[in-house]
Each structure stands twice: as structure tokens, then as C-alpha cells.
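Researcher: We're teaching a course module on how sequence relates to structure. For the next exercise, students receive a sequence and then see the predicted structure as C-alpha cells, so they can try to spot secondary structure elements on their own. Here is the exercise chain.
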Amino acid sequence: IMQVSWPVLGLAFGVLFVELFSATAASVLWGYAVAQGLALAGVISRLGLGSRPHHISPDIVRTGLRYGMPLVIGGLFVWLANNGLRFVIEHQEGAAAVGLVTVGWGLGLRAAAFAAMLVTAAAFPLAVARSRESGMAEGQAQLVRNGVLLLAILAPAAGGLWAISDPLVERIVAAPFREMTAAVLPWAILAGAARNLRIHFGEQVFLLREETRIPLVNDVLDGLSTIVGGAIGLALGGLPGSVAGAACGAIVSLLVTLSCGAYLHGFALPAGHLIRIATATAAMIGALHFLPMSPTVVSLAVAIVTGATVYGLALALVYPGEMNTVLAKFRALRQA
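Model: And here is the predicted structure for the students to work with:
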């Protein structure tokens, strides 16, 4: 709830502050800051942090630092992967070019992150609980199930946004930014999907096994490969090429992370699930391709509902056993 609600609450506060104070970026940022503060206060109160300050265990602190410090450092490189492209573009093309690219780049990354957030908040703690109850093998198996669910959400979200990107951009993006946003958005979606799959699936097995230095190396690779890819793409293909290069860098880091997990711990998504989810996603994209769309709220809403319906029906067809289980549980609930 905290993960999903604070962005919406931040937007609401931002709009309120713009109306009450001034129509500036600072007012919007203050709105998001207030929402973040409220969310942080809620989390601290539920965790009971600071309730027993004299009972801090040095062993726990040392263990926490050993486990968490590589993740903190890695987070800096993930930030670099998300934002470093702007510095590359500004250095070569100037601040105006950054503005042209940022809309599409940010939209693609945010959309993928929001989709992943819907299924990842409680996924890793569930795997930790399974590993404690039944051993590491069961915990790792739970991570695989989490990954299948993540892919089942992330793939249609990315594919659907790509399929409706032209009318969506025309509807929500100001005219001076539309052409560039339409050009870079598909690559930004791909970069966001690859990065979230790496962080929320590929790295999870190392976190579960307390091998946090490996995710650090992969985070460093992600940051550097995205920057290098963006710079090469900018030199070869201009501003759209910079985003394409950054997306290629994100894919490289994803493949390296998945390869490490598969080689060291036999950790991978089953091919059968990959094929079925890809089939359902392709069916959805195909349906949207033949659906007439215009840059209106009604048309976009119809496209979203149509895509979700087609994807849901396609999933039911490729997962008949799971669908029968869901229907059986639904009938049992109705009879209860």
C-alpha cells in the first residue's frame, strides 16, 4: 500500500500546493516530499524504530552493514543508470536537448517501475520466510514463482504502453516534446523493463543467499554500460540513438545478472512460462495493432480495456490448469 499510494498522494499534494502557493516545479516537488515524509513516518511507526534505543545489538549492526552496504553503494549506480544519460546529453548537446529526451525517458522508466512495484513489495519477504521454514531450495523456488508473476505483469505493461504510445504521447505530452518522446519512448520502456526485471528477479537469489557483493558488481555494470551505451548511441544516432544505446546497456546488465544466477545457483525462469507469457503478450499487442485509436480519453480507455481483456483471455488459454484452479476457488467462495 505504501509503495503504490505515496506517488498518487504526492501528485495530489503537488497539485494542491500549486493551487495554494505558486505554479512552480518547487511546489510540485514539495508535494511529493510531504507524501514521502508521511509514508516514512508510517513505516517507522509500524516497525517500532527507536522504541528501544538502548538495546541495539552490535552484532546485528555489523551484520546489517555487511549485508546492506554493498546494496547502498549499488543503489548509487542504479541512480546513475536512471539519470546519467541526462548528463551525457547535456555535455554533448546542451540543456535543451535534455528536456526533449527526459519526457520519454522518464515516462518509460516510471511506467515499468510502477508495474513492477505492484507485485514486488511482498515478494522477497515471502521467499525469505519460505527459506527459513523449508530450506534455501524452497526459498529459491519461491523466487522463481515471484519472477513468473513479475514477468506476467511487466511484459503486458511494457508491450501495451508501446502499442498505444503514439496516441498516448499526442494526448499527454506538450507539442514541442511529442516527436522526440514518440521516438524514444519504446526504447525507454525496454530499458525500464530490463532494469526492473534485473533488480526484482535476477538479483534476488543473491540477496536471499546474502551474497550482496554480486548485485553490487551488477549494479556497477548497469550504471556504466548504460552511460557508455548512451554515449555511443548519441554519437551514432543522435538523441533517439542515445536512449537506444542506454536501453542496450540495461539489457547487457540484465543478461549478465541472469547468467550469474543460472551459473552459480541454477536460478532461471522456466522456458515454458517465458513462452506462454510471450504468447499472451503478443496476442495483446496484435489486437491493439488492429484497433483504431485516437488521442482521446475514451479511445485510450477502450484500448487499455481491450488489451487487458485480450491478455487475460490469452493467459487463461495458455494456463488452463491454473485457470481451472482459480475457477474452482471462486466457486468455493460463492458457495461458502
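Model: If you want an answer key for the exercise: The chain has a mean pLDDT of 89. Residues 60-269 form one domain.
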